[in-house]
Each structure stands twice: as structure tokens, then as C-alpha cells.
Amino acid sequence: MANPSPTASPMRSRMTGLLLAGGRGTRMGGADKGLQPLAGEPLALHVVRRIAEQVGPLLISANRHLIDYARLGAPFDARVVQDATRDFPGPLAGLLAGLRAASTEFVLCVPCDTPALPADLAVRLLAALDANEADAAVAATVDAIGQVSLHPVVALVRATLADDLAAYLDAGERKVRTWYARHKHVEVPFADERAFYNANSLHDLADLERTLDAPRRARQLD
Domains, the chain, ranges and CATH? Predict the structure, then answer.
């Protein structure tokens, strides 16, 4: 199903979704992480579906297999963008490409390996950003003992920060949290840690496969 027009919702029309799929896939032996199969479909496709109903336009940041990502994003009217340089400088370079390409007020960036993201991710990040008059809202989770874990590449970022981010990268900086610290940002807590589980390795991907397959196996046993 194609991504509905961003004019369908005033809230959604403020945000462009950005799937970050431009990494080296080092911990997957150099494989393109977003194109690895999960439940018979590319991992990135699961993530696109999670955010397509939450935002207006969609972008996919990729540096390899551009035709494959364009085909993956076509049903959602997603456009593929690339880093300005080809040396894989990290997620901030993908975010910069998204900020440059976006025509909306904000960009919601998510990694290509988090297929269970919350259905209310965008609305909660936007509400927190607006309430705090911030430049960025970053997702976090809190465990049973109150330990906070930040998920820095799951964030809603003001598009006007593009020039500042470009200068930061030009200076050789790469750390995501350090860049956020330059701006007013807010951490937004989510209760479900599993929603932010990411598949960094083939082992992680196999764990995700088992998790998704468990309900099917349970139904077969009924």
C-alpha cells in the first residue's frame, strides 16, 4: 500500500520519515543489513511499514544497492538519498542527507534494523519536542530498575539543523550524542524495550526471526 498523502494529517505533514540504511554492515560480515531477510522479507521493509503510517514523505538513506532500496520503497513513495561522501562516515551523514532532502519541518530518523518500533513513536516524539520547544527529541527506554538507555538514532530532528550538522561533520566529528548536546534536545521515555531491539549481527537477526515465528508456532500447537 502506498504511503498516504502527507496532507492527510496536519501532524504527519510536519515530518519526513528517514530510514538509515547506509552503513557498512561490519558486524554482519559486510552484508547490507537492511536487505537481509526477516520472515521472508527484507529487514528494512519491516521498518518502513512501521513508520509509513506515522509520517508524511519517506526517504531511505542508502549507499549500496540503490536499485534494491528504490524498489523496496516504491510502494510507499519513498525516495533514496545518499551520503555526500562515499567513505561511510556514519549515521549522522545519513541524517544530513535526509535533512537536506526533506521539505518538512522535521525529520524522523530510524535505523533499518528495528522492525518493532512503537506505533506511536512519531506522535510522542513530536509532542515532547513541541512541549519543550526543542530542536530534537530522542527515544529512550527505562528498565525495571530505572536504568535509562538512549537510542540516539531514533530521533525527531528539526530540519533547519542541516547546516550545523554539515559543519560538525566537516570538522571530523562523528558522535551522535555529542552533536545533540550542541542543541536543545529532550529524551522521550518508552516503556517497551523490545520495541527498540536492533539486529546488529546475523545472530541478532536469527533471534528476531525466532521472536516473530513464536506466535505462529503457538497457533499450530493449539
Answer: 6-221 (3.90.550.10)
